[in-house]
Amino acid sequence: MLPEEVAILRKISPLLMRAASDIIAKGKPANELQKEADPDVAIRGWELAAICYKARKANHRILGYTYLSGAWTARDAREKSQDPQKRQDYLDLELAYIREAVNFLLITNQATRIEETFMPDGTKIVKENIPQARIFEVMYILAGCYRILSELDESNRFLEQIIYGGAAAQGIVLWFVTQARDLRQSEVVGPTESPGFVPAGEEEAEETDEEEEEEDPDEKKGGWFF
Questions:
Q1: β-pair type (223-225, 196-198)
Q2: Which residue pairs, CB below 8 angstroms and at least 24 apart, start in 186-189?
Q3: What is the model's pLDDT at position 187?
Q4: What is the sign of the dihedral through the CA atoms of 207, 213, 216 and 219?
Q5: What does the alpha-carbon distance between residue 49 and residue 214 come to, in Å, rounded to a whole number?
Q6: Residues ≥6 apart with Cβ < 8 Å to 193
Q7: What pTM was estimated for this model as a whole?
Q8: Cα(226)–Cα(219) distance, integer angstroms
């Protein structure tokens, strides 16, 4: 390892240990627990990944997708569990991860605007040059996340941006517009069961974002969603 990588690892080790404390308490190596399909290892794995991504200063979209993947893993665990307390624990983790995903994807959404945008501390948000399909994807994910969090007004705000912003849409963007119209009419609010899927974007292969060279959690062609 390079000296700078060792320094980063030393810096984040306390965070990693705290995040993995319930896994360590099981008294088995993580790889053994993975072979046993332990859901807690899978769920916490996304948090550990997010800590590492933050240390490497990954872009906000990758961090948002990492937490979103953790939320869906927690949802899967909740669906499979028969223990009421564990189901509640997994639901709490799912919602916590979704809130983190929203925080990072909101910054991504702001980074695609023409006007200058700023963080709460006054730091200027660096612009991101990403394909139109990806911009619509982020807005659609935000709309769905806010619906799961029972924040209907915020959800509808993003759905309306998709619907009116994609008036002449084609291809994958048209898919987002159609789905946004359907979701706008839906009365379902709050955590649900198994998520649906977002099709692979036609423009996805054209991305040149440097951070895409890292392991993007959304790099499975045809991702998740509501």
A1: antiparallel
A2: 186/147, 188/147, 189/147, 189/150, 189/152, 189/155
A3: 79
A4: positive
A5: 12
A6: 75, 79
A7: 0.78
A8: 18
Q: What is the pLDDT of residues 33-68, one digit of tens each?
A: 666 677 888 888 899 889 989 888 888 999 999 999
**Do 98 and 145 meet the contact criterion of CB atoms below 8 Å apart?**
yes
Beta strand ranges found along the chain (DSSP E): 196-198, 223-225
Task: Enumerate residues 6+ apart whose C-beta is below 8 A from 162.
Answer: 136, 139, 140, 143, 176, 177, 180
The pLDDT tens digits of the residues spanning 9-32 come to 666 677 767 777 777 777 766 667
Token reading at 115: 């006007």
How far apart are the C-alpha atoms of 12 and 23, rounded to whole Å?
A: 17
- Coil, helix or strand at residue 224: strand
Q: How many residues does the chain have?
A: 226
- The full DSSP string for 34-49 is HHTT-HHHHHHHHHHH
Cβ-based burial of 71 (10 A; exposed 0-12, middle 13-18, buried ≥19): buried
φ/ψ region of 207 (left if φ > 0, alpha if ψ in -120 to 50, else beta) reads beta
